[in-house]
Design brief:
binds 2-acetamido-2-deoxy-beta-D-glucopyranose, single chain, 28% helix, five-stranded antiparallel β-sheet, six-stranded antiparallel β-sheet, 41% strand, alpha+beta
């Protein structure tokens, strides 16, 4: 066995042990959600207080929580700003049109279906809960390093019936680097 193979096996073993400890780890990465919450006031669509996202060791993502639409939503212009570490992005999209545009992607349709999110406009007034089934992200294991870092975002959506604001902050952390960091920094 050559040195690089030994190193690979050693690192893989450490990652597995660290993953087993956190129980929220996929492909050596752990998802830490700081918050997903409403911002501002008088939101026409509101997330429930306990809104959570968990990534399990088998690379399944569980979204738990409910949202309440206080009116029938027939149009939704989404303005968003996002940041991954120092890289920023922002934009404006017609939410209803985006839902129409992704109709041809069976993968996105399935994700919307699993999450219990609306697949088209209008979104009817009332309460709906997410998280009946998990989403399997095993396929994206090898891309985790691309998404790794501190992710933050905020969206303000203007609908026919009023506005709503949602913000989130999360970290996708390499467990090995985290452990080394803790070891060195304390
Ligand atoms: C909302 O939409 C539903 C279904 O289309 C309709 O039955 C209901 O009357 C609408 N409610 C309001 C307040 O417009
Ligand atoms: C998740 O998907 C992968 C392939 O993408 C598959 O091998 C694995 O069995 C799935 N996990 C579950 C729990 O369904």
């Amino acid at each position: 066995m050559n040195a690089s193979t030994t190193t690979t096996i050693l690192i893989s073993t450490i990652v597995l042990i660290l993953c087993a400890k956190t129980a929220r780890c996929c492909g050596g990465y752990e998802l830490e959600v700081d918050y997903i919450r409403n911002c501002g006031s008088d939101n026409i669509v509101e997330l429930s207080d306990k809104f959570s996202v968990d990534m399990k060791p088998n690379c399944e993502i569980y979204v738990n929580g409910c949202y309440t639409a206080h009116a029938n939503i027939t149009s939704a212009m989404v303005e968003f700003t996002g940041q991954k570490d120092l890289v920023k992005l922002s934009g404006k999209r017609d939410g209803c049109k985006v839902l129409d545009d992704v109709k041809s992607s069976s993968e996105i349709q399935m994700a919307l279906e699993i999450l219990g999110l609306p697949k088209s406009c209008p979104v009817n007034k009332g309460k709906a809960c997410l998280g009946i089934k998990p989403i399997n992200v095993s396929k994206y294991k090898s891309l985790m390093n691309v998404f790794a870092g501190h992710l933050k975002g905020k969206s303000v959506t203007t609908t026919n019936a009023g506005k709503f604001c949602i913000e989130f902050s999360a970290k996708l952390v390499n467990v090995l680097i985290k452990a080394i960091g803790h070891g060195v920094i304390g």
